[in-house]
Every structure is written in C-alpha cells, then in structure tokens.
Automatic annotation (TrEMBL):
<dbReference type="Pfam" id="PF02681">
    <property type="entry name" value="DUF212"/>
</dbReference>
<keyword id="KW-0812">Transmembrane</keyword>
<keyword id="KW-0472">Membrane</keyword>
<dbReference type="InterPro" id="IPR003832">
    <property type="entry name" value="DUF212"/>
</dbReference>
<feature type="transmembrane region" description="Helical">
    <location>
        <begin position="132"/>
        <end position="150"/>
    </location>
</feature>
<keyword id="KW-1133">Transmembrane helix</keyword>
<protein>
    <submittedName>
        <fullName>Acid phosphatase</fullName>
    </submittedName>
</protein>
<feature type="transmembrane region" description="Helical">
    <location>
        <begin position="61"/>
        <end position="79"/>
    </location>
</feature>
Amino acid sequence: MNKGVAIALSSIGVAQGLKIPIHYMKEKEWKPELFIATGGMPSSHSAGVSSLATYIALKRGVPTIDFALAVVFGLIVMYDAQGIRRQTGELTLKVNDLDELIDKIHKDDPVAYEEQPDNPLKEVLGHKPAEVVGGALLGVLLGMAGYYLGRK
C-alpha cells in the first residue's frame, strides 16, 4: 500500500479512537460508538489530510506539486469539516425538536409549548475550530512519526 495513504488512514483511525477517552474525560460517559461517529475532538478529517501533507513535505519536499496539492485539498477538507457538516448537525437538532413536537400533537397529549428565543443558525459552521486545529496538530505529529519511523 502507498505509505502516504497508510499514514493518512492510520491518522484518521487514531483520531477516531481518541474521541472515546476524550469524551469520557469530559462527560464521564463511556461511548465506544464514537469510533464510527462524525464530529467531535479531534477532527479525523483534519488529522488525515494534515498527516498526508506532512508526510509529503518530509518525503518529497515543500516546493513540490505533491505538497501543494495536499495542502490545498487539505485546507478545503478542513474548511468543509468546519462548515457544511456542522450546519447540517445544527439543522438536524432543530428538525428533531419539531419531530418530537409533532409526535406529542398526534397523541392528543396536551402540549406545553414554550416559545424560545429565535437563535439563527450560525454562519461559521462545521467542527468547532478547536477540533479542527486539534486534528491538524495530531495529523502533523502522526505524519512526522510515520515518515521518521519508516525511514531506512
């Protein structure tokens, strides 16, 4: 297998695995299903693309087209992870609340509706910036480790 692909995929796996103990430390709740969940700290998107770009920089050099492609596509992936994906999650929360309200109405239960202040969806979307940065830093470290451990 291509070493860059192996390092990037391994970084994604490590980032996904780290979500479990990080969540446990914050929430005191053990959730192994976070390994296959999206979102959270650290961003596996950022870890994957950052480890690949780091590996390419060390293996081929910063002035190469390979590194330029990895950086540009990596930045697009991280921007998207911090953008559209988060917006979708916030919209889903609002839709789920509506679904619960409709279920109560259909059961002829008295519905206590409490109007909440209008909170428009955020324009800065996706993973929280700290999650993206955390994933990027993890990726740089894992990309360096993969490069230096694989040298002969």
